[in-house]
What we know:
By secondary structure, this protein is of the alpha+beta class. It contains twelve helices and seven strands.
Amino acid sequence: MDGSHFEKRYPVVLRFEGLSAENLVGYEMHRKRKGGDLNCVDPGRSHLNRRLIGGEDWARQTLDEIASIKASNFADELEALEKRKRKKDLKRRMAEGPHDPWRPSRHGPLREVILTANKEWFEADPAAVFDEGESENQRIQDFQRLAVEWLRKEFGDDVIHARADLDEEAYHIHAVIMPRVRVEMTRTDKKTGEKRIIATRLMLQPSKFEIIADYEKAQDSVGDWFSSIGLVRGERRKQAFRDAVAKGEAPPPKRLHTPPRIWRMKKARELESRERQLEAREEAIGEREDEAEAIIAVAEAVGEGVLDPLAPDGEALVAKEDPAESDALAKVRERAARSPSGTQRVLAAFQNGWRRVVHRARREAFTEVRNEFARAADDLQAAKD
């Protein structure tokens, strides 16, 4: 199933990570789901994970082989110094002991390979759509077959381990590369200028593989290899960078890979922040609902004559001995108690309105009485005349 009938074309994802020999113990603990970052792991699916290359004890065998290489190189070096009668150098090297068979670097002598694709691509297989299980998912089977073939083609016997993980968000394959290389040590004859081999050492040197040394070539390789199942090469970011520089334009920002653990920590912080904002928003909405309920209760009570907004503290006008009216007042107070501030605000609004109405009514009444009095005085004076 090549997926060519789908409009969206998903890229095959390839990533290399540096790996040191001392990290293998932790790597194995995580592989067996006994340690490391397990936040993204579904324990109920871990039994589906499977080894594809290498035995169950591959890590121990790898450490044993590295120890054997160190010992062999050390013995050869001591033998060469003894033959050349370099006694001081021989004593110094014996005191130093065996050296690691690789050049120190921040990446380490081994490489971890991660191969995967977008989870939507795997989930578009009919077996996944109808929940028939991973064993029936043709895309998983095709991806796994091509991945193992590609690893063996590119790294040969130097791929010492590979496994498929199905208990995380997307199906993916991990592999470990142990890049063995025999390095020839030469000496140049000062008189003749001739170079001759004086010793050979077995070393671990990732740069022996061109696709490790050149990221673009690695992407080309997997892009071509997985094209038969509908996957495509990843974005040519380095070429876009070079083209922009050649044109004198601002290059696109460098895309840095974020380790899953760091990504999950960032997402957890974002989720926590959103939850706090949501809680604050829900609390504010609840306060507004309580306030609205209190305002409605007071307005209805004033409209029904249960409360007098001009009386102190909104005392009831109803007779307290009337049980029905007292019960109505109790319900109003219960609703108003949900938001004392809302109650006070609406009562203040009613009081201000009522005072203005009363003041206007009194003023109009006084004006009318004064006018009536003036008319009566006029009438009286006329009668006297």
